[in-house]
Amino acid sequence: MSALSQRPDDAAVGLTVPHESAALHVTGAALYTDDLVGRFRDVLHAHPVQAPHAHARISRLDPTPALHVPGVVRILTAADVPGLNDSGVLGDQPLFPAEVMHHGQAVCWVLGETLEAARRGAEAIAASGVDYDPLPSVITVREAMAAGSFQGADRHVQRGDVETALHDAAQVFTGETEFAGQEHFYLETHASLAVVDESGQVFVQSSTQHPSETQGIVAHVLGVPDHAVTVQCLRMGGGFGGKEMQPHGFAAVAALGATLTGRPVRVRLTRAQDVTMTGKRHGFHAAWRVGFDAEGHFTALEATLTSDGGWSLDLSEPVLVRALCHVDNAYFIPNVSVRGRIALTHKTSQTAFRGFGGPQGMLVIEDIIGRCAPQLGLEPHELRRRNFYTAGQTTPYGQEVRHPDRLVRAWDTIAESAELDTRRAEIATFNASHATAKRALAVTPVKFGISFNFTPLNQAGALVHVYKDGSVLINHGGTEMGQGLHTKMIQVAATALGVPLHRVRLAPTRTDKVPNTSATAASSGADLNGGAVKDACEQIRARLDAVDDGAGLAWEDLVAKAYLARVQLWAAGFYRTEGLGWDAATMHGHPFKYFAYGVAAAEVEVDGFTGAYRTRRVDIVHDVGDSLSPVVDVGQIEGAFVQGAGWLTLEDLRWDEGDGPDRGRVTTQAASTYKLPSLSEMPEVFNVTLLPDAHEDGAVYGSKAVGEPPLMLAFSVREALRQAAAAFGPPGVSIDLASPATPEAVYWAIELARSAVPATPVPYAAGPAPRDGSPAAGDVEPVSAPPWQVQT
Ligand code: MTE
Ligand code: HPA
Ligand code: MOS
């Protein structure tokens, strides 16, 4: 057991405690960025002028019409930027653009005494202050592929000899998989509030997962050093990756406005603005060839993944890298050649979203398994289990898969606790006696790499004060977005100092307390900041132990004695993850400290008339190491699973893809048209268990990251829907299911199954002609008739 992972007796980590702000959340007393506005006088409100074109050159921009609107104070345009006119770090995201790159992009901002005045001012500019020369646009990823519209670096993960392996495979299949993105729909939309103090210091309150980067971008827009800008994040009403990169521009608008007017400036997006202006999960297209041996083991995978990056790079490159590092999911594939590229489309700039490419990579392999299993004559769960990594095997990018036995343990635990054999028999009986409703049960595994692929990001800091009265105040570099990071950090500090939880208070995240932080992302918040908090506390503890000298003084007495002895009672802590290495060019190395594992079994019932479905039961066993905070972790698993199920089954993000004047507009701008999971879509029975005996040597107090991995357990629901649709037709038929698997998509999958004619030896038949949104039948095709040789 490592010094990092070892727990003392009576540790405060591992205790079942509520979220530190639970009472504030449920009573409405918790403060979010925009709640602070009322505390300031003379606040100006900012409103964007949004472009009505997917792609256009701005030929004229005249703010005068807004200046005639009562209450309008100032218009912010590119001419006002004293520093760099860019809201990103790669130089491709102008804050005030000369060329409109997506429908709804802000071309300038109006500051008003009230939000209504600013809105009217923006309306006046939109009506008569701005002219556009429309340009041709690329909206869908397929259009981008046809037009050769790409951005950023292509990537390639490669191992072995795919062509030979496919040639020698017992069976080879080809197919395409295309799936949609996802709107974050955090309850709190983007918000920033900026003030300039008496010494010229810019102070920005921002709903940001990445305060240090927000600080850096505000500073470069203003043309001042980082030390002139402080960013604070009290907490977020959800981030989910959507506030890793996207808050920067809004913070910069607020800060620029405050600098130019000397008054506090508030930016808070409406829901429609948030949906139309900010990036989402990347949708992907994948084309693949896959080979299996006679026993149903993968022999080779060849694929090209194209992500829909939207108008600028944003985080698309690291998202793509993570996707390529997760196409294997839990399965050993000896020969691999997977290429990735990023489409440039005239849409919002797609960004981080829980899983960060991992879900997209895994969807490809889970789709392949779901579609190929019937043609291999294997139950999908059997095909999955047969291909699990075993000890000593490595991923396609060269990292050894440690603890694959945990996956087996989770799998076997579920089989028993969820009585899978019995229920499969019950489902068969149900399906045999019901012509218009079918049930199915699917089990899917998750293996998710923990650490930022880009090694330098795996560092964190903390600042811990012990006051003379023995009370403790901690700061760390991570942000709280509901995930319970602050709760865990209080538990870590109490453990490391050996004090009760109530002695520790945690102060909001600020860049002037802990500098140069990484985003709270990649699920690494607790690993990284926990390491830093523990380090700071242990420095203090060591000094106190020297003062105590075996006397066994009570905490308060010891602290008082140390103070009188002029012992430093505060410390800065630092942590960096050891043992990582990654070559971005060759896509090879050991990018992850460890893998998080989980298994889910989902049972659904599908209606044959409508495609409507219910999730009858879900069982999850998930590996969080030795949990730092069990209720928080179970909440993360439940929430991630439901969010994943939303992506895969309900949330149908639509853009106007037609040639009319609204081309490129997001048509799902509100909860009325964008169906989110709610209580009624929760699994009727939902059992979440933490994998026991799962100590992780490489992380703080033996724990594992939890924020993102369980999202991908939701593949069990999608695969269960596929199997239930298949149950309407003859056995042995490959069923293509669109993603999201909305009731409509499930209906078309049922139609596909019903019209399929079982044939031998290739039991595959053309389905009905594809309709809008429907999958094309015959997509998974064996490349040739037996003996299943690849044609070259
Ligand atoms: N949980 C809640 N309630 N709200 C969120 O916004 N974000 C998720 C996850 N869980 C999120 C959440 C994402 S995308 C990540 S990367 C992690 O939390 C980040 O926090 P952590 O590193 O502390 O787990
Ligand atoms: N996850 C989340 N955010 C990131 C990552 C990652 O792997 N890499 C860079 N930013
Ligand atoms: Mo999470 S997508 O890494 O913010």
Automatic annotation (TrEMBL):
Keywords: Oxidoreductase. Residues 27-136 form the Aldehyde oxidase/xanthine dehydrogenase a/b hammerhead domain. Its EC number is 1.17.1.4. InterPro entries: Ald_Oxase/Xan_DH_a/b (IPR000674), Ald_Oxase/Xan_DH_a/b_sf (IPR036856), Ald_Oxase/xanthine_DH-like (IPR016208), AldOxase/xan_DH_MoCoBD1 (IPR008274), AldOxase/xan_DH_MoCoBD2 (IPR046867), AldOxase/xan_DH_Mopterin-bd_sf (IPR037165), Xanthine_DH_Mopterin-bd_su (IPR014309). GO terms for molecular function: xanthine dehydrogenase activity. The keyword Oxidoreductase applies. It comes from the Bacteria. Residues 765-792 are annotated as: Disordered. Gene3D superfamilies: Aldehyde oxidase/xanthine dehydrogenase, a/b hammerhead (3.90.1170.50), Aldehyde oxidase/xanthine dehydrogenase, molybdopterin binding domain (3.30.365.10). This is Xanthine dehydrogenase molybdopterin binding subunit.
